[in-house]
Design a protein that fits this description.
Aspartate Aminotransferase, domain 1; five-stranded mixed β-sheet; 12 strands; binds pyridoxal-5'-phosphate
Length: about 400
């Protein structure tokens, strides 16, 4: 099995994601006959002589030099995600936003044009409206669900098309294959943020993107205790972004990498349960008179349910709904939830609830949120692995009491 799971050609080995999540990517890092990946807390790695040191430093032989560049525990995490995403190479970061910003800064230059959409994660949106324009990169943000508009913007020429699907917090779905094809016609690179879907539910590279990234803080970690990011794709592109990250220094800590390796073993189990719970709860929410709109790609009523059904194997653990009573109703309901942390996170085994104004889009002004089509009465609900009927009973008592 080791040969299979260590394949470097970017092709998915002949094992299912559930098996790979448990087994893949660990062999190189194991030591002292331990069955588990150790936490290698060493800033640097020593060599017996100058020649072997030089060979490793120049990448002519395998070997770690300094943990800002590479580290065995961190490499095991990168390997696992690389294999789950069916990529040739992967590199990691201290946070999801480091993955996003390092990818963008490494791949675009002043004078380039970037096309994306209005509904990206709040921090990513700030890259597009503030940091990229500051260095002379032109950014056009399209309507997330208007694929013709995105194709037209791409056809005017661009260096990079940045996708996120499903989106945060309104769970919009983008047609990854169609938009990637449009971008490739003008020679643009396509990057997709796959944080919400996870590699269990969706593989953007297989749908045609050049790169896929994750905030590992969310579903990959799954236990709300570590921050990290990861990027997968072809070796040349990963090398460019890795070089930017090793120099600017947003490297993943070995302890966080260890927690991710451990958490990834249960990724398939967790995501399967979260998919199932979210579907059950979304259907129940649809029948509640206090709820105006339920956003979940698994519902037939979702605008792009057909696209989601085509490109996803499961619809994920994230949903959002708006309460008819607006922000006042949200303020009454949320504190009454007993089985949801009110916290700015998602993708954990525990259910979390929040409002975009305090979570994903805290970086944006009320006007920016309105422009992005995010109602102030929206609740973002990250479904955990608790029993779905317990979660429904919890929502029901909170709605009734409020
Ligand atoms: C949380 C998140 C990020 C940023 O990740 P951090 O680990 O918080 O820096 C990026 N994209 C999406 C979709 C996210 O949910």
């Amino acid at each position: 099995m080791s040969d299979d799971v260590r394949r470097q050609d970017g092709e998915a080995p002949d094992l299912s994601p559930a098996t790979l999540a448990v087994r893949a990517g660990e062999d190189e890092a194991r030591a002292h006959r331990g069955t588990q990946v150790p936490i290698v807390y060493s800033a640097a790695f020593g060599y017996e002589d100058v020649d072997s040191w030089v060979d490793a430093a120049l990448g002519r032989t395998e070997g770690h030099i300094y943990t800002r560049n590479t580290n065995p525990t961190v490499a095991a995490f990168e390997e696992k995600v690389r294999i789950l995403e069916g990529a040739a190479a992967a590199t990691s970061f201290s946070t999801g936003m480091a993955a996003v910003s390092n990818t963008l800064f490494a791949l675009v230059a002043p004078g380039d044009r970037v096309v994306s959409v209005k509904d990206t994660y709040g921090g990513t949106n700030q890259m597009f409206v503030d940091f990229l324009p500051r260095i002379g990169v032109e950014v056009e943000l399209c309507d997330t669900t208007d694929f013709e508009q995105i194709e037209a913007a791409v056809a005017r020429g661009c260096r990079l098309l940045y996708l996120e699907s499903p989106t945060n917090p309104t769970l919009k779905v983008m047609d990854i294959a169609r938009l990637s094809a449009a971008a490739h016609e003008v020679g643009a690179l396509v990057v997709a943020d796959n944080t919400f879907a996870t590699p269990i539910n969706q593989n953007p590279l297989a749908l045609g993107t050049d790169l896929v990234l994750h905030s590992a803080t969310k579903f990959l970690g799954g236990h709300a205790d570590a921050l990290g990011g990861v990027l997968c794709g072809p070796a040349e592109l990963i090398k460019m972004v890795y070089h930017y990250r090793e120099i600017t220094g947003a490297s993943l800590d070995p302890m966080a990498a260890y927690l991710f390796v451990r958490s990834l073993k249960t990724l398939a189990l967790r995501v399967r349960q979260q998919n199932e719970n979210a579907m059950t709860i979304a259907r129940w929410l649809q029948g509640q008179p206090v709820v105006d709109v339920v956003n979940y790609p698994g519902l037939e009523s979702h605008l792009h349910h057909d696209v989601a059904a085509r490109q996803m194997r499961g619809y994920g653990g994230m949903l959002s709904f708006s309460l008819g009573g607006g922000f006042d109703a949200v303020k009454r309901v949320l504190p009454r939830l007993r089985l949801a942390h009110l916290a700015a996170n998602l993708g954990a085994v525990e259910t979390l609830a929040g409002v975009p104004a305090t979570t994903s889009h805290v970086e944006c002004t009320a006007e920016e949120r309105a422009a992005m089509g995010i109602p102030e009465g929206l609740v973002r609900y990250s479904v955990g692995i608790e029993d779905a009927q317990d979660l429904i009973a919890d929502l029901e008592q909170a709605f009734t009491a409020a």
